[in-house]
Structure formats: C-alpha cells, structure tokens
Amino acid sequence: MAYRNEQLNEEKVFKDPVHRYVHIRDRVIWDLVGAPEFQRLRRIKQLGTSYLTFHGAEHSRFNHSLGVYEIVRRIIYNFEDRPNWNPEDRLLILCAALLHDLGHGPFSHSFEKVFKLDHEDFTQQILLGDTTINAILKKVENGFPQKVADVINKTYENKLIVSLISSQIDADRMDYLQRDAYFTGVSYGHFDMERILRVMRPMEDQVVVKESGMHAVEDYIMSRYQMYWQVYFHPVTRSAEVILSKILHRAKELHENDYAFKLKPTHFLSFFAEKPTLKEYLELDEAVTMYYFQIWMNEDDPILSDLCERFVNRRLFKYIEFNPNHQMNEWMELFRLFQKAGLNPDYYLVVDSSSDLPYDFYRPGEEEERLPIHLLMPNQELKELSRQSEIVESISGKKRTDHKLYFPLDRLEELSSRSKTKKRILEILYR
Ligand code: CA
Known about the structure:
The chain is α+β, with helices and mostly antiparallel strands. It has helices spanning 27-34, 36-39, 61-79, 90-99, 108-115, 119-128, 132-140, 144-152, 159-165, 171-184, 193-199, 214-232, 235-256, 269-272, 278-283, 286-296, 302-313, 328-340, 345-348, 385-388, 390-395, 409-414, 420-429, and strands spanning 7-16, 20-26, 200-202, 207-210, 318-321, 350-353, 374-376, 382-384, 403-407.
C-alpha cells in the first residue's frame, strides 16, 4: 500500500488532559511523532517563563502540537461529505497541524529578539532540510515537504487549508487557549469548542462559522481577551522574561569582549554570532540552556552571575507602571542614579511594553495575514463577526499598550540607609 494511505494495525491513542484523547491512525503521523526533531519539542515549554508565575505552566510544545493535530483531525472529520472539501487534502492538513511549531527554540521570544532569529525560518529548514522529518514527508511524495512548508508559511494556494491552521479561529489558538488555561489553572480560557467545531463550514477559500454558533464564538473571543491580560501579559512573567533577555545579552556581550568563561559556552557560540546552523539550533533546548545558567551563576562577572542566580532561583525584578515617552525626565534621572548606585542601568533598569508580545486579541482588519472570522448567515451571506456581535465589537480593535519599568528592589534596599541616591531613587519609583 502506498505510504500516503498506510494505516496502523491498531489505532494509537495519547491520553490528553484537554481533549481527553489524541487519535492516530496514519502511519505517516505516527512516524513524524517519533522523529527526533518532533520529540525535541518535549524539551521546549509552550509558555516560556510563565511557569515562574503559574507553577503548573510547565506543559511543552509537544503537548500543544499533538493538541492542534487532534483539533484539525476532528474538524475535517466533520467536513468529510461537505461541498468545498477535498478528502485528498486530509494528510497534508494533518501534517501541517502537527508540525506547525517545529522550529520553536528554547524560550523563543527572548532568544529570537536577542540573537535575531526567526522560529518560522527554522520550521521551514526542518521541513525542507536534511532531517528525519523531511525523509518521512518525502516518502509520501517528492513535493510533499514543500506543500507542508507552504501551508505552514501561509503561501499554499488552497486558502481553506491555510485558514484551519492560521486564521482568527484556527486550531492553533483553540488548542493553546484551552491548554494554557488548564495548565495555569486560571478560570478563563474555557469555551465550548465542540459546539464551534459542529458549526464550522468549509468555503472555497476559508473556514466560516454558521450564524447559529455566534455565541460560542463570542465566548471564544472573550476567553482570548481574558487570557491575554490574565496570563500572556502577566507582569511577573514579563519580569522573568526581562531577566532572561538580559542574561543572553550579557553573555553575548562578554563573549564579544573576549571574556574568559570558566566553561566554554560551546552551545551558545553560533547563537552569539547570530547564525546557528540547523544542527546547532536543534541542539540548544531548554534543558541545555538551564544547564548553562546554573554554570554561569558561578562566573566571575557579577552581572551575569547575579542575573542567572535570579532566574534559576526566581528572584525576579519588581515593577511599576512607567511610560518613558511621558516620563522622560524621571527616566533620565533614574538612569544616572542607578549608575551612581553601581547598578548598570542597561541590565537593571528595564522598560518593557506589552506591544511586543506574540499574542493579541481579536482585531479584524489589522492583521493582514490572519483572516477575520466570518459568520455564515441563513441567506448564505458572509458577515464579519464584529459587525454582528456587540460583545466582540466592544472589545476588538482596542489597543491598550501597557508599559512597565523593571528593577531589582532588593539591590536598592541593600544600599546604605544614609545614601541620598537610594532615597531619591525610591522617591521617584514609589511616589
Ligand atoms: Ca502554535
């Protein structure tokens, strides 16, 4: 039998806390799950530094990837006999769902910013390069790896398929909202996915939702909104993220200034140079990263060792609301005072704004690459969700940027009680 259609003798099921079970029948999917590049996702957390805020949030990108696969599997099971659906696309869409996050690295957000990397670029390299994943996909058909890569890259000609994995109501978001809610333990993030799957309909170039399912979709949008503020933007998570970025910056800077590390940071060298090969990229997972942080706690450089000790032992920075655009004078004064107090402001006085996080809530029309949600009206007309739903209209399109200033309060408190610098700093921070 052709590899494309080969079925396992017995269906494999993974127990899953969110979807109860993940079902695998295709030999191809089973082989992909077993590939080293996919197994590596077990060692990359889905929510980066959120576990330092919500101790349950240790779930991995492996969990999430299987979840996205399972949701897509259920969606297309419902599509089977519908017009606009071509059953031949089944394997392609399942593979794309399973593999869409393959290129994520350790703490992706900070690593990408500091070392100027792009996980989507590595996803493409893993699919198309010399990897086990590529060898498996090629067995389906020579051009198959490229097709999967195009779907994930949103450049595939069939936009219906693309929209199942990346649109405003795609399987990716439906999985991570529920999964992140489950593992953080928050009471938001839950919505009636079963209902949404039942009212999804394939159109020629996108997936739409029957108007009767509008309230279930409203609930999904609300849960996105609440998860955004409650979990993804949590200021404590961002404090840990700030420290993590500063560790990477410091290590890179030391390396560029020929600092003699006690242990050669072998795994990081190609990252410092901002050009890791695929092999080097895949070798640096979160376990390896944490290993170096532990080692660096004993480095002679006081900034690197302090930041690593903070991250490993969760001694995070405190924060206040602070917008440097409106508080330029205070910002400049704090900068000088920190220098005076012996705290390098490049590392210990950090403004962080919510606008550069990889999450958002519903903003129809603002994100060109993600299709907005369309309702299918009884007369077969399509209407954009926020034009029909007052709830969605009222929360969509709002941009609320949140700026915070992060600093090590413990280090300030250590300064002598007679220090005028200390007194003035605390005055500005806590006035
Ligand atoms: Ca994802």
